[in-house]
Amino acid sequence: MSRPQFARETSTHGEFVRQPNRFTDRITADGTSGWPAEPGRYRLVVSLACPWAHRSVIARRLLGLEDAISLAVVDPIRDERGWRFTLDPDDRDPVLGIGFLAEAYRAADPGFTGRVTVPSLVDTRSGRVVTNDYPRITLDLSTQWRAWHREGAPELYPEHLRAEIDAVNADVFRDVNNGVYRCGFATSQEAYESAYQALFARLDALSERLAHQRYLVGDTITEADVRLFTTLVRFDAVYHGHFKCNRQKLTEMPVLWAYARDLFQTPGFGDTVDFDHIKRHYYATHEQLNPNRVVPVGPDLGGWHAPHGREALGGRPFGDGTPPA
To answer: Where does the entry annotate site (Lowers pKa of active site Cys) (predicted)?
Structure first.
């Protein structure tokens, strides 16, 4: 048997078990965490290929935090040293002055030996990673950075809906967001089939839910929609073939396809998608799954701009606010 793509994160039964987030400090409005929310102090490091990082890019854009939190984009091709800043002059991030995100990890923990992940928020003063806790990052952008939200910014995590959002997010993470990875990186037939069945059972349940309402929770876009979108937008380009999630393509699931197009055509969603980065990352860095590193030409992306008809279900993208300029 060949070595698994992520050996440290593969169980003895062939299941992919995602590593926990190493850095879980929080940036808070009152600064009691030791990391006060301050415009210009933190740099958000992302890969445009990564769905976990894409969440934070969308939230930052929707909330209008572009001037408060700067953005660093790594090369979509991650080598054995991790995420690289080769898209910048001299292959170094112009603000942090480093060539690899791993350097900021070691500044925070010299003994760190795990997998370096995005998104990461890095303190520009010390060069240390504050957090790579991707579920918490977007929630804190909504709740701890309110003083710097744009006028009319949406309520992505409204207090009266948080319990429902959290419950939906837990199901979506387990079966869909992480479920596609559990399919793709399974090293036993049993582990793969278990993940596959859970994935499509959840997609069927989400289709039924969304057949009667425009968004996952409430009548406006919330954190729950952001989290589901980043998996759906990658589904046909990557997960259907590369990760063997091939019962159906997204374009063959009418409700989810219309829902995904609705979000894609909303400012802050589709304009933050980079299909080139997405495809090059997955097909060129998972050598066990794609040893020749050939990147598919398709699928046809034209359908993302087709009318979706979701307005008939009611609901408004940004509630009483306005879309980002």
So the answer is: 239, 282
- Could you tell me if 139 and 167 lie in one domain? no
Confidence band for 325, pLDDT divided at 50, 70 and 90:
confident
How many angstroms separate the CA atoms of 83 and 281, rounded? 11
Is residue 304 part of an annotated ligand binding site?
no
Task: Examine the domain organization and report whether 171 and 131 are in the same domain.
Answer: no
**Is residue 181 annotated as part of the catalytic site, yes or no?**
yes
Establish whether 50 is a catalytic residue.
yes
Query: Known binder of ligand: residue 41?
Result: no
pLDDT tens digits, residue range 191-228? 999 999 999 999 999 999 999 999 999 999 999 999 99
In this prediction, residue 21 has a pLDDT band, given cuts at 50, 70 and 90, of: confident
Cis peptide before 299 (omega within 30 of 0): yes
Query: Does any domain span residue 320?
Result: no
20 and 186 in contact (C-beta within 8 Å)? Answer: no
User: Is 295 flagged in the annotation as binding?
Assistant: no
